[in-house]
């Protein structure tokens, strides 16, 4: 029989995104069997995150102070990228040649989950956008993302607002492409040179 504390740890670990029950059990056993202080280091790291990380007062990104390092950086390009979560920022920061500012909504409008626009981080979006040369909507290309993007476009009617291109993903077989994706691909088509 497994010790109760090991079962509880595995259950907690499996509640985290991306960790299956089997992987959670492996991690729990590793922590229980490690003699090099891995468990204590992990506990300290988790406690530090809980104590030190909060939301940026400006953009809603993760920060260790009131304002995150991105919002504090005055050398950034006057472009505002609107994203759903802080994880999206990490992706953009790794791949972009330019360094924009960001605005984290904290989700998308979702009628079935009763998430309205009032639940999202929009209080200062119009004010921030007015100081930018462009606002890029980088939201998921699903129904919730489309609804949220349309709502933001209405709010920012007097700003330059662009959206990430949507369409058929690289390597996809046409027979598996749904009608909405195909329509978006046709609308966002580019001239072949």
How would you sum up this structure, described in words?
With 193 residues, the chain is of the alpha/beta class. It has 2 domains: 4-52, Helicase, Ruva Protein, domain 3 (Orthogonal Bundle), CATH 1.10.8.420; 75-163, Dna Topoisomerase Vi A Subunit, Chain: A, domain 2. The protein has 8 helices and 6 strands, in the order H-H-H-E-E-H-E-H-E-H-E-H-E-H. The chain has helices at residues 4-14, 21-33, 38-52, 69-72, 86-95, 125-129, 143-155, 179-187; strands at 54-55, 62-63, 79-83, 101-104, 134-137, 161-163. Helix 7 links the parallel strand 5 and strand 6.
Shape: globular
> Briefly, what CATH class of the largest domain?
Alpha Beta
For the termini, the CA-CA separation is 67 Å
- Care to count the β-strands? 6
* CATH T-level fold name of the largest domain: Dna Topoisomerase Vi A Subunit, Chain: A, domain 2
**For the largest beta sheet, what order do the strands appear in spatially?**
4-3-5-6
Structural class: alpha/beta
The average pLDDT is 89
String of helices and strands: HHHEEHEHEHEHEH
How many structural domains in the coordinates?
Answer: 2
Q: Count of DSSP helices?
A: 8
* Radius of gyration over C-alpha positions, nearest whole angstrom: 21 Å
The biggest sheet amounts to: 4 strands, parallel
State the helical fraction.
Answer: 40-55%
Into which percentage range does the β-strand content fall?
A: 5-15%
**CATH architecture name of the largest domain:** 3-Layer(aba) Sandwich
Low-confidence stretches: none
